[in-house]
Amino acid sequence: MKDTIPQAKGKLGVLVVGINGAVATTFIAGLLAIRKGYAQPFGSLTQMGTIRLGKRSEMKSPKIKDFVPLADSNDIVIGGWDIFDQHLYDAALESKVLEPKDLDPIKGELQRLHPMPAVFDNYYVKRLNGTYVKKGATKMELAEQLRADIRDFKDKTGVDRIVMVWCGSTEIFMGESEVHKTIEKFENGLQDNDVNITPSMIYAYASLMEGVPYANGAPNLTTDIPALTWLAKEKKVAIAGKDFKTGQTLIKTVIAPMLKARLLGLEGWFSTNILGNRDGEVLDDPYSFKTKEESKLSVLEHILQPDLYPDLYKNFYHKVRINYYPPRGDSKEGWDNIDIFGWLGYKMQMKVDFLCRDSILAAPIVLDLVLFLDLAQRVGMVGIQEWLSFYFKSPMHAPEVYPEHDLFIQQTKLKNTLRHIMGEELITHLGLEYYED
Ligand SMILES: NC(=O)c1ccc[n+]([C@@H]2O[C@H](COP(=O)([O-])OP(=O)(O)OC[C@H]3O[C@@H](n4cnc5c(N)ncnc54)[C@H](O)[C@@H]3O)[C@@H](O)[C@H]2O)c1
Prior knowledge:
This protein has helices at residues 22-35, 45-48, 64-67, 88-95, 100-103, 107-111, 139-157, 183-191, 199-209, 226-234, 248-261, 278-283, 286-304, 310-313, 358-379, 407-421, and strands at residues 12-17, 76-82, 116-117, 161-166, 214-216, 238-241, 265-275, 317-324, 333-341, 347-355, 383-384.
């Protein structure tokens, strides 16, 4: 594949849905600060990660950004939508993630960034009331307005390529229904204002129709429906999702594979969170929480494979709670109590208390996803990008396979995909040195 990859020439547009939110403003302010040399891109695989090439004895581990032709983060141009008309400096201050001392040196740039009016309906996010919202008689009309926004953004900024990322609020739980099954039914549903088509799906539809790759940072179904995965392939566009894997689930997808690797049984896993940001407030609504709960719960079943290991994992009890607790702001606390058993059934416990910062963990994921999706698009990798499962709690996957949740399998898949793209040998960790010649 190596010789055929178009290089990342020109500017890369990044359109962020929910641009005034905590994750989005932390990503954007961070990007601007890093560009000016005020900070380092900690947490970002594309900026700091390395990749081993060849045998261990060759000692060849270039930085990922020197190995694959990623867009330069200096070439990113930001735009986006929100339901509140506020420039990004005020929005970032309000999010209370980054301190004024870190925002003030980039105040001018942040003040110049204004959202475009959003496609929003309070039916789908009950705790928010948007004031800066597009009007249209049908959902199709709203999609057309978003498509016009994308084209205007491209004309005004002169960007060569665009990636769209959903950093908007979590929508209410929505299962797959008839209107999601084919693109014909979906487009009729847009004309008929079908209630099962959410705002995030309207953005995704507009993105795909404009040939723009789309990443979904929330657990909403969005592109994870047959109509839109089909459209992504048809329009030859890369998509990835769902739900950024940041705090508690990141830890869970490291500990659970360890339990399975050592055949330690699980009796119960109780996870609770307190957080006080707007995301926490939205998730305090039971309908939005249900979407998040499904995303967080599915992880253990897939990693532990109770059908293969019934004696160890058949009946474990798994509970996930999220509690809105304003004093904490974005500084979430995630507790896990894990009841396990080992040799002869003797019981043990693990306790994890992760005092994390949600948006600090999510921001580098946004940057990596943007750069990798842009790469995938240039390479001609279309549809669901399973190699980006590394970044998601509920990785999208082909219908015939189960999702891969184990963080280190995900990491291997990601790095092997990069090796494959560049025509390098894949690393299998197979040790042939034990055999006689
Ligand atoms: N921070 C994390 O670690 C993390 C991890 C996984 C997933 N997520 C998800 O990422 C999303 C963003 O999280 P956050 O903490 O920034 O939340 P936030 O509430 O601070 O930001 C969400 C933003 O989206 C805007 N918005 C809502 N609906 C919109 C629409 N239809 N169009 C345009 N804008 C819209 C809101 O006004 C708000 O500015 C949430 O869905 C959250 O569940 C976050």
